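Record pair follows.
FIRST:
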Amino acid sequence: MTMDLDSVRTFFRSAPFMVDLGVEPVDVGEGRLTTVLVLAPRHLQHTGQAHAGVMASMADHTMGAAAQTMAAKGVWVVTAELKTSVLRPGKGERLVCEARVLKAGRTLSFTEAEVYAETGGARTLVAKTSATMAHTQSRG
């Protein structure tokens, strides 16, 4: 399925949780996607760092959309397995997630992503994620 940046943005707007979080796609290509999230107090733990669930959710949807760019017409990609490793506190102005498909298949795709905390253009790797995406037939 060919997806340009406008269609990926529409895809993200159709997911209420991504809209609520504020995750925005900024770059797309076949099997890859970059998203950003401007950090706000609602995204933070009591320690002042981004909640691991925010980073995992951002990475999950970004990896799924990257896999969707390579899926056959009439196929939806959904997460079958997800692993997130938080490497250091997610502190900064925004999070940037870079996702890519490692192997696209007919029924499963394997993906990975890095989440960076960014302040003033300086980036720090804060989480590494991987996911197995299942391909399902879309309905209606």
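SECOND:
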Amino acid sequence: MSEGAGRGPVGTPADHEVEVPAELRAEIEEIISRYPQKRSASIPALFAVQRRYGWCTPEGIRQAAAVMGVSAPYLESVASFYDLFHLEPAGRHRILVCTNISCWMRGGDQLLDAFCEATGADREAAGHGGALSADGEIHVSGFECLGACDLAPMASIDERYYGPLEDADAAAVVDALRSGAEVLPDREMAKRPLAGGPDGDPDPRVAGSG
């Protein structure tokens, strides 16, 4: 790939040419530090942009590219490949309802219905790529598989997994998102206790081995 004068690949914005919010810069720099190659940080860096702006805005992509030292067209190509990234306005919040077989058998389609009703999103569109709530704040979409069958039926809400969910939970989730309250803390996967218990006791069959 051809190089620009001191910039790396053509299309890479010079860091001094792009005003990057300090919080976003710090987040992306921390992300880059986790990887041996900076391009490996592309997906989490784009998620950082999307969380800040609600979608992968052209300027947000330029900001991430400047911090990473890669070209903006490269980051845009990554964002356009994955359907979890949005290159157009898509609301401040995202609800992805799993509709694959485990969730479907436990009412995933009806759960998607409930979220559409609670938000005013178009149900047909939500089942085919996603739809915005009536106020444009919440993106609702069915999703083929979120890989959490033990939580069925479940949903990803602003990148966090919740489940099992009931149809009646949809309205509570939407109210919490709009008010800024915590979303269903007792249903969040990250807050579930570990299978081994709170102390993480070792299996007595292997304790002391080695």
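COMMENT: The longest strand covers residues 93-98.
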